[in-house]
Amino acid sequence: MQHFLLSSAAVSLSIDDVASMSDAAVRRLVRQMRWPDTNGKPICPRCDHDRIYEMASGRLKCAACRRLFSETSGTILHNRKLPLRTILMAIFLWTNGAKGVAALHMRRDLSISYKSAFVLLHKLREAIGDARDDLKVGGVVEIDAAYVGGHIRPPNIGREGRRPAVRSRKQCVLTMVERGGSTINLIVDGETTEAVMAAVGRHVQPGSTIVADEHAAYNALHARYTVHRINHRWEYARGDVNTNAAESTHSRLRRSENGIHHRICGPYLGNYAHEMAYRGDRRRCPNGDVFRELGEMALMHPVSRVWTGRWQARPDGKQGDRKVDIRPLIWTPLEPFEPWRWAA
Questions:
Q1: Which of 64, 136, 171, 277 could form a disulfide with 49 if both were Cys (CB 3.0 to 4.6 A apart)?
Q2: CA distances from 23 to 27, 83, 88, 170 (A)
């Protein structure tokens, strides 16, 4: 059986289609993503009036409240500095990344700063996570947990004596997968009965059938749901009783961490978990449809309170850098690269 990504149905949009669009076509596409109900006709974000004028500068003006705005005003891309074409190409690169796309990779592809790529990718992840916050699953639901986002440093005996093992900073990702349906990834304090019951009560519909492993945290589910258990000490599948879909989601998240991002910080693990759940649900959709859906989620999401402007908000609500210092990640050459020297 041919893999979906090798079929012609997987490719309905190419990077050349986005890069060769005219400025008018770019604005038309962005407006269709922002206002899909009116087929791209602008609506004032302040008073919801539909009588809008386009200024010579390209900005829009409401005839009712006289407010000037743009296609990204009031969205998660508010106060943008990047051109609309660059944003669309970034969304396309995100869409085509089977296991994700790194900010350093996008920085080189689009010739933008690392900060711009880092923040733009996290804004897309925030839009995905908020759009899936109230998602519910039903029918046959597989539940499993994995610990992601850290590294256990083993003990070592060197010349200066024995170094003890460093405690792992891994976080618990609880996964709920509806067979033939959606995937939900949640960050919980641990694989405990309280965390499992709270997550299942919020996201799993009543009357569903749950498939879980032998962990004691799932024992309390028998009182509310029909639960089938599989003991991984002796078997991995017993007919339809297995958690293979949930474990595949964990494998996809680990491959994204090890092969693409290499390091996922604790505060951001939830964003990456939501991203990989969304990628898993859309793995058999044409890339053009995913591109359009992701653009609509970003342009219909309100202004972010975490990612303000081009970087992160400070704890006091003002704009400024916090938490992450990217200076060790940026390589600055000692002298400028001059390709004509290698022309011969």
A1: 64
A2: 6, 10, 12, 45
